[in-house]
Amino acid sequence: MSRSLVRQARSSGFTDAQIARMSVGGKPLAEAADLRGTAATIVVSPNGTVRITVPGPPMGKPRMTQRDKWAKRPVVLRYRAWCDRVRAAVGDCLPDAALVAEVNWTAYFEPPKSWSKKRRASAIGTIHRSVPDRDNLDKAILDCLWRHDSAIGCGTLRKLWDWSGRLEIEVVLDTLP
Length: 177
Hints:
Elements: H1 3-11, H2 16-21, E1 23-24, E2 27-28, E3 41-45, E4 49-55, H3 74-90, E5 100-109, H4 117-123, H5 134-145, E6 157-161, E7 166-173
């Protein structure tokens, strides 16, 4: 939902009228706010651990094809906008993937508004057992934070219900010389 998506849509051959009808996350693409000001909490501890909290609901990586390079499906546009938001929130505080020992993350999801108040309250703190799948979330997180994420081979993953959607990432750096 950054301005780069509008530029990308224009370079793909979409007219301004078509861009005006596109929406990402329920907001018109042309009117979406720039995400560089997304407030994230980043804590770097002396023992080599970086803790990052990114506000907003997490998103799993969708299945993409070669056609998605020119035929912009809404789910792919939403995913790319989410990755832009996470990258902008994290900035350049993460080391190279070769220096990372493990990546642990917890994704918090808001219960749907369609649920009753009692059901929403009872879901808080319990395991989130619906889509997106945790492997798609892991793929999305690692792919948007590191270009060469194949060096990361260890970590724990959790999906929980909470009153506010957010993503909490803990990056443990390798202590070997």
